[in-house]
Write a structure and sequence with these properties.
Length: 434
């Protein structure tokens, strides 16, 4: 199996300049290749924009493209050839995604034609796929980067890799700090036995990140909201600086570091929460939320994106596959919030402002999120009690019929719809032993 190992780098000032030069070389190759593709389109020539076709074109024309304006000599030998190849690889991937999206062969939103990368807006980065890169023997706190040399790391990278084969190393700069992401190949592990914990249902929310069916509440730190004041102040300060000045560059670095801190706070909570769930419970049930539809509500969009529901589910999928836990994804049409967890009565309407659930049939009074988490647990452990559309099987008349909740809407053609008991969770990711 493949795994990513990300470590922070601690380069010297000279190495930082070399890293910037390599990132600039990747961006230059990307822009040069894109200009070549656009020229072919204008001349209506046969399009050859695969990765290998772009590499052949670059190797044939690099002496005329990467030339110094002052001396007239080619400057491309100053950087590793891998930096130029990584830029062309990014361009080939962008063109392939555009072509597949236009033909309807790619899922997700429609991709536009690639645009030129700007030095100010593009994330500096490049990658190594061949050559003597990666770990250094008897030097666990360092990585070897061709044309740059030994670069110190902030942690024991050899311990993180743990003898696995390094296939690729991507180097990028985010928030003013350089980092390396190593793609390693490990041997398939035997199928682990599920954790000894029982089943649990999880109701994700904005006010509280997650409410478990056993009453546990995972508080939401609101990483963006808590740092929003400092971000506004830093961005106002940036807007006053003259473009191209050193002070504007310093102000941009401060803004980038604040955004990186927000992302780190959010990622830290999600990592710890999903790890705890995957190790503690044998069966985990969550809802298939339509996050793309939820963010269309402009009053909740910022809070929904700050909670990172999609990342929460993504981490649960691969972590439960590692620990042997079973992940059940409940159909988004299931009325978990409107159903009484005691008698099964389904309310016709339930506004978002009602935080306490009151059942008119049995008199149950319970927290809205806890009630939903219990219903999600029941739906995940007993899928036979639900019909194909995810509605409750306990309805007795038309007055108790569930209604479609606006934040759980899905396309009416049913292409992306999934039903219970049809491989909704991490079954495809479960490791098998030979």
């Amino acid at each position: 199996m493949l795994e990513a190992v990300k470590v922070a780098l601690d380069p010297t000032p000279r190495q930082e300049r070399l890293l910037e030069s390599h990132a600039g070389a990747a961006r230059f190759a990307y822009n040069a290749g894109l200009a070549h593709v656009k020229a072919m389109l204008e001349r209506q020539e046969k399009l050859e924009w695969s990765y290998y076709a772009l590499r052949r074109w670059w190797n044939a024309n690099k002496d005329a493209l990467a030339v110094s304006m002052e001396t007239g000599k080619p400057w491309w030998p100053e950087n590793s050839k891998e930096s130029y190849n990584s830029g062309l690889e990014s361009l080939a991937d962008a063109l392939k995604n555009f072509s597949k999206s236009r033909k309807g062969q790619r899922k997700g939103r429609r991709m536009g034609f690639p645009r030129f990368k700007s030095k100010d807006r593009a994330v500096p980065g490049f990658a190594y796929t061949t050559g003597s890169f990666g770990l250094i023997d008897c030097d666990p706190y360092a990585l070897r980067l061709p044309k740059i040399g030994r670069v110190h790391c902030m942690e024991n990278v050899s311990k993180r890799v743990d003898g696995a084969k390094v296939l690729r190393m991507s180097v990028s700069k985010r928030g003013g700090r350089w980092q390396a992401s190593l793609t390693v190949e490990r041997a398939d592990l035997p199928v682990p036995s599920p954790p000894k914990g029982g089943s649990v249902g999880i109701d994700l929310g904005v006010k509280e990140l997650a409410t478990l069916s056993d009453g546990t509440i995972i508080h939401n730190p609101h990483a963006l909201k808590s740092n929003f004041g400092r971000l506004k102040k830093a961005q106002r300060n940036l807007s006053r600086k003259r473009k191209g000045s050193n002070r504007r560059r310093e102000a941009r670095t401060r803004v980038a570091r604040l955004h990186a801190r927000v992302a780190d706070l959010r990622r830290d909570l999600l990592d710890k929460t999903t790890t705890m769930l995957a190790r503690a419970y044998a069966d985990i049930s969550i809802e298939d939320l339509n996050v793309a539809g939820m963010v269309r509500n402009h009053r909740l969009a910022r809070s929904v994106e700050d909670a990172a529901f999609a990342e929460f589910r993504r981490q649960l999928e691969y972590k439960t596959a590692r620990t042997g836990a079973r992940l059940h994804v409940i159909d988004r049409w299931h009325p978990s919030s409107k159903t009484c967890s005691n008698c099964g009565t389904v309310k016709a309407k339930l506004s978002l402002s009602e935080r306490v659930y009151h059942c008119e049939e049995c008199g149950l009074v319970i927290d809205r999120d806890l009630n939903a988490a219990i219903n999600i647990q029941v739906a995940g452990s007993a899928p036979e009690t639900l019909n194909a559309r995810g509605g409750s099987g306990k309805r007795t008349d038309a007055s108790r019929r569930a209604t479609r909740h606006p934040v759980k809407r899905e396309p009416s053609d049913g292409v992306s719809r999934v039903s219970l008991g049809a491989g909704l969770g991490n079954e495809a990711m479960q490791m098998t032993s030979l």
